[in-house]
Amino acid sequence: MKWKVFFFLIVQRFVELYWAKRNERWMKERGAKEFGQNHYKYIVCMHSLFFVSLLLEGIRKRPSPWWSVLFNIFVVLQLFRLWIIASLGRYWNTKIIVLPKAERVQRGPYRWFRHPNYLVVVLEFLVIPLMFQAYWTAVIFTICNAYLLSVRIRVEEQALRLLKSP
Predict the structure, then answer these.
(1) Looking at 62-66, 129-133, 161-165, which range is the least confident one?
(2) Residue 24 is inside which H or E element, if any?
(3) Burial class (CB in 10 A: 0-12, 13-18, 19+), 9
(4) Contacts by 10-15 with C-beta closer than 8 Å and gap 24+?
(5) 164 has which bridge partners?
(6) Residue 164's closest CA among 87, 89, 102?
(7) pLDDT tens readout for residues 10-68
(8) Which of 32, 60, 121, 162 has a beta carbon 3.0–4.6 Å from 99's, enabling a disulfide?
(9) Whose CA is closest to 131, among 74, 79, 81?
(10) Beta-strand runs (E) in the chain
(11) Given this model, what pLDDT does residue 39 score?
(12) Quick one: which of 63, 86, 73, 88 has its CA closest to 122?
């Protein structure tokens, strides 16, 4: 079962990258501006290394004794991710791309959270390695992710100032 989850995650990430590229084209055709290009490559690298580390550390380990609890949390996180993507629609992206003068999205989880996707990612960087008993992966990538998110959220907040408040 754990390898089905691993395969699902890899496929999911590639689908997300495809979807993000499609949305990026659509937005840039309408005059969108991209921010944070300098740190984006580090985020991609970190996420890629996360999966390599998860694979290497978890390959010989049995699934966690807490698998069923962690798996249910994982499923809820994936549903939350879908809600986030659906709420942003064509504005959803893995990059920071803003269409100036567009209205800031205030539906779905964005009614309560400014950055709900980052909440999902933070929790995934804990839950997924724990499912695989990849404790070093959880610790190392949670720390790396916290640093990169501190940079990214600052840049994203500056970019979002170009939007109209609803």
Answers:
(1) 161-165
(2) helix 2-29
(3) middle
(4) 10/51, 12/78, 13/47, 13/51
(5) 103
(6) 102
(7) 999 999 999 999 999 999 999 999 999 999 999 999 999 999 999 999 988 998 999 99
(8) 32
(9) 74
(10) 33-35, 96-98
(11) 96
(12) 73
Please give the Cα distance from 46 to 83 (Å, whole number): 24
Instruction: Give the pair of three-digit tokens for residue 37.
Output: 């290009």
Cα(151)–Cα(35) distance, integer angstroms: 12
**For position 76, what pLDDT does the model report?**
99
Question: Which of 13, 10, 148 has the alpha carbon at shortest distance from 94?
Answer: 13
Confidence at 132, pLDDT banded by 50, 70, 90: very high
State whether residue 141 is helix, strand or coil: helix
d(CA 83, CA 130): 24
Q: How far is CA 64 from the centre of its chain?
A: 23
Q: Beta-strand (E) ranges in 55-117?
A: 96-98
Q: What is the pTM of this model?
A: 0.91
Of 2, 10, 119, 1, the closest CA to residue 57 belongs to: 2
Domain boundaries, the chain: 53-166
